[in-house]
Structures are given as C-alpha cells and as structure tokens.
Design a protein that fits this description.
Elements lengths: L7 E11 L2 E7 L11 E4 L2 E9 L2 E6 L1 H6 L10 E6 L18 E11 L2 E8 L12 E4 L2 E4 L7 E6 L1 H6 L10 E6 L1 H12 L1
Antiparallel strand pairs: 1-2, 1-6, 2-5, 3-4, 3-6, 4-5, 7-8, 7-12, 8-11, 9-10, 9-12
C-alpha cells in the first residue's frame, strides 16, 4: 500500500530479459535503505526488491505487469518515480494507492500555465466511470486530483515542486504513463454492477 507521494527518483542501470520477465537494476540514494522482499512502487507499479547492494537494487517485472504498464518501454538511463510502502502510523498525504496499474494513458497536452504545469492525458480504459471530477488518480505513482474529465481525457495540474522532483519533467507529447484509479471508486463501481 502506498500514498502516491514520491520519495525519490531512480535511474535504470541495467535491463535483463528472462523469458517473459524483465529484471531491472536501478540506482537511487534510497537503495541502501531497502531490504530484500520489500515492496517499492516504480512509476506506480508495486515491485519486490530481489537484490540490494550499495546504491543499487534489483526488481523483477513479470509478463502480466509488463503488458499492463509502461515498464516494458524503460531503457537504460530512464528515470523512475519510487516510493516505499506506507507506514501505518504515518500521515496519508496523498490517497490510497495499491501499486496495481489499471491502464496506461498518453500525454496529449503539456503546457506551462502561470506558475504550474497543465497536462492532459488520453486513455482508453473500459470503465470510464472510474475517473470523477476532482477525484484522485495515480499517474506514474503520483497522487493527483483530476479535472475537466471526459470519456477519453482528463487533466491534472502539477506544482513546480512535483514537476521537478518526479519524472513529470521528462514527459512529452505522446509519453505513455501508468494509471491507477481510486480503489474506493473501483469498489463502488463493482458493487453497482452487481445490483
């Protein structure tokens, strides 16, 4: 369980394909604090630390994860948003994020808007009722509030701090991002379907 408040950035240092899986070696100033078997969010995807040494560590993404996220497009040198799992007695500064990507989205607009950045993302999720005006969403693991929601697009505004301290500053038109819809909304939608 995560909060969507990014702790640090990690750089991809090595990529090793192993049948349908990919082993990613990443470098981060948080690496020395990580432990084997620990869950860490990578661009919003919960992955388990399988190796750790000095300022690097390794995680493995399975075929299912690679097919539903943007992790398969990572290259050596790519920057990844990372967050360690939340502490149960801490503040929930973002929203409840599971690290289970629901869909990917595409950046169709990026503009500087009087001190903040405005992004528009296009998505093709099968259940468009999971994004609501002023609701929460996780984009590449970042907890954000959405607005101007339609059946194919939504917008977010990024403050300068978030822009500089996450990989949002690297996004460009056409960039693919990981989307995780609000878990409470998903449960409500599922209960509604069962009626």
């Amino acid at each position: 369980m995560f909060t969507g408040i990014i702790e640090n950035l990690a750089e991809v240092k090595a990529i090793e394909k192993d049948k349908g899986n990919i082993h990613f070696t990443l470098q981060s100033s948080l690496a020395h604090e990580l432990k084997i078997d620990q869950s860490v969010s990578h661009n919003g995807v919960c992955l388990t630390v399988v190796k750790q040494w000095d300022n690097q560590y390794q995680v493995t993404a399975i075929k299912e994860t690679l097919e539903k996220s943007n992790l398969a497009s990572l290259q050596i040198g790519s920057t990844v948003n990372i967050e360690r799992c939340m502490v149960m007695n801490g503040r929930l500064d973002g929203h409840i994020v599971q690290g289970h990507v629901d869909a990917t989205g595409k950046c169709v607009l990026k503009e500087f808007n009087e001190g903040s950045w405005r992004f528009v993302f296009e998505y093709t999720a099968s259940r468009t009722n999971l994004i609501v005006e002023k609701g929460s969403i996780s984009i590449n693991g970042v907890s954000l509030t959405v607005f101007n929601v339609s059946n194919t697009n939504f917008e977010v505004a990024i403050i300068p701090y978030t822009y500089e301290h996450t990989n949002f500053h690297e996004l460009a038109l056409g960039s693919i991002v990981n989307l995780e819809f609000d878990i409470i909304g998903k449960y409500i939608a599922r209960l509604h379907e069962l009626k």
